[in-house]
Amino acid sequence: METRSPEEIEESTERLLQDLKAVVQDGEELLRAGAAALGERGAAAREKLTAALEVAKETSRKLEVRARETAKATDVYIRENPYQAIGIAFGAGILFGILLNRR
Length: 103
Known about the structure:
Blueprint (H helix, E strand, L loop, with lengths): L5 H29 L5 H41 L1 H21 L1
Helix pairs in contact: 1-2, 2-3
């Protein structure tokens, strides 16, 4: 099991959010570009794509809020309990070291 620092987790989350936003933007551009050329079946597909894009936008917003709240809570905990945080990190490091050396 790989452990990552809070900075790496935050960076990974930011990249995920950026990628999700790019997908949403690309989908919206596709909708605008193909709106004139759509027939009946295309209109139904457009409605489905619009609904999927709305779900993706909402998921992106929720994920962003949750990631920021988690990062803030972690920061507050570490600042309020520095010795406990160091102890937990130390214990986790020893545990992972033991598990890795067994293989």
